[in-house]
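ARCHIVE CARD
Drawer: 12
Card no.: 0347
Subject: one protein chain, sequence and derived structure
Cross-reference: see card 0346
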Amino acid sequence: MAAIAQKTLELAGGLMDPLRLRVLLALDDRPSTATQLSKALDAPYDKVNWAVKQLVKGGLVELKVVEPAASGMVMQKVYAARHRGWAALVPVLDAIVASRATEP
């Protein structure tokens, strides 16, 4: 059996949360704010913001820029995936789910 580094196991554990995976996939498409992600994913802002913070903490997402919001009154944080290609994970996960559906 291949050895798996502890950091790799921690990374996989961080992706177990469905919302975090959806956020990561969205940020793989384009940099966004938590507000933009909340609207795009139709998820509560507080949960999306928490997911973003967890992904930043895990090193999967980074803060790209802090810029004025449209109103100019507040600053908004724009985040992006630190690594590209997360969408390639989806077909693998779908294949695993499909194979489990055919098991007795």
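Annotation on reverse: Strands lie at 61-68, 75-81. The first strand starts at residue 61 and ends at 68.
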